Please model this.
Amino acid sequence: MLVADRMIAGALMVLSAYFMWHAVELPIGWNGRTGGPGGGSFPFWLSAVMLVCSGLALLRSFAADAKASFFFDMSMLRSVLAIIASLVVTIALIPIVGAYIALPLFLFWYLRIYGGHGWVLTLSITLLTPVVIFFFFEVTLRILLPKGVTEPLFFPLYAMFF
Amino acid sequence: MEMFSLLADGFATSLSPLNIMIVLIGVTVGLFIGAMPGLGSVNGVAIVLPLTFIVPPSSAIILLAAIYYGAMYGGAISSILLGIPGASTAVATTFDGRPMAQQGKAGLALIAAAVASFVGGTISVVLFTLFAAPLADLALAFGPAEEFALVLMAFTTFVGLGGDDKLKTVIMICLGLVLSTVGLDLISGQPRLIFGDMPGFYSGVSFLVLAIGVYGIGEVLYTIETSKTAPTVTAAKITWKELGYGIREMNKLWRSMSIGSFLGFFVGMLPAAGATPASLMAYGIARQTSKRPDSFGKGNIEGVAAPETANNAASTGSLLPMLTLGIPGSPTTALLLGGMVMWGLVPGPMLFIEQPDFVWGLISSLYTANFAAVLINIALIPLFVWALRMPFTVLCSIVIVLCIVGGFAPSQKMHDVWMIAGFGVAGYLLRKADYPLAPLVLALVLGPLMEKSFRQTLIAEQGNVLAFIERPLSGTFIAIALLFFALPLIKMLRKNGRRAVAPAE
Model:
């Protein structure tokens, strides 16, 4: 799949150009006569090397004897995309409905709907995980996870453990 | 001898009840992570690192080192029982481990792997103890110029010795270094690469975010795509009789086990090499020097012993430059280094002077971890057989949840969780396209040191670039670095030269 190879090399070129564009906000040359390189020079020149190398990688893929470095297993690509989509939805939901709704929803979707596991396994993991997370992070480590609209529901628990 | 008293003091630390418990937990977690196909030591350390805030920093590092160790033992379990390596470091173990299992000798193969891991681990820890203090003493003389040259040398080993595409390796090193410059400039204090003033980037890109993304989410995506059908698990039961027989058999394998131990230790020290190539090399040498090379690949117990000693020895070897010089010898030790910096324990020679309790506690914990790992490994084999039957989706769901929560916990910013998802997808695509990820992670961890030492040297030397080659040590390192960098070019020229000569013959 040379197309995908080229797309990745192209994306890396765009990324390095973007880095270079932002790096010039600080001096990229020599800082005075004796001060050494300026703050922007490290990111700028390394991005420049990256730009050149990914450009070469792109050129190489057009050579006559270029071989594709990889293939997607098309039948599994759907699964990969489903996981990525569910991950994005879960992370987006966390600040709104809170980690204690979003994560069990993800687990339920993943185990029951996507994975097709039995109810016992699904429910035990879905219900146990938030409890373990609560005691590990909130009670022991005092790290509060985002709760969004469910915050008021936790007030009695806070009163109990803090 | 001073070293023995230091080591004895270290045992006083590592044999405290808390640390014994930590080692037992770490080794067990490591064994499970190593045994699960798709997860290796680096994934385990990345996912567990945010959870280690629960114990004091020195115990946290002991825990992570124990996981690293356990994973090296565990990798062999699925290599033998499933025929697919539990971690890339156990690839060579499948060559003879799987045929042994198919011949009904799974139990013997598992014992051989565990005992070989123990031998490799123990020999290499002794080597580690002998080399650590002298190397740290040597490193005391290092100034910023030497530090820069050493980091440069570490990166060039990837180009000269790494097996990956050279161009893609250079791209990944540069990307990692550029990502490490995000945030505040160390010298002028000004913000840079904050991408249009996004507040989340002011504190930079944390190594943990990249590691959880690439080795957590990215690994899950990669494994989902590549594991289509569930493999069959070979049943294995171990009796006392078999255990005794296995240990007696192992007594005949000192040749291949010592090859594995010494080779593994020294190959493991190189940042570009590590446990996977070390175990493949040990397998190759054991076969070449064997009296019956044709029996390899058909279930020769030596073919299990050699790579298993080597991968454990290599994991210890890669800890040596990390602890004494501050240059990690593998991606896993790069994460350990990042974790130590986060906890204010900056690796390098000064650590041996300022925190001898911690350093020798960690070294002595490697002895206890080894001992615990071999016992737990053999005792829990029935449990591993059961766990390997667990569908991968169950493990995946837990890993993803741990990545999200673990990514949020250290900084408590949703920004980092989004970054993890982004790095996960990007890491998966890059890995598919044969871009090596180890140099990327190493570059992000070492980037700040590299830039700081480079600019400090130039400020101290008033802009004199020659300062790097005028100092004897740093000059030597730079020369070696240039040699590594030129190695692929020389190889290419020689190949072309031969091609040109061939028709004339």
User: Anything to note?
Assistant: Residues 106-139 of chain B form the longest helix (34 residues). Chain B touches chain A through 63 residues (CB under 8 Å).
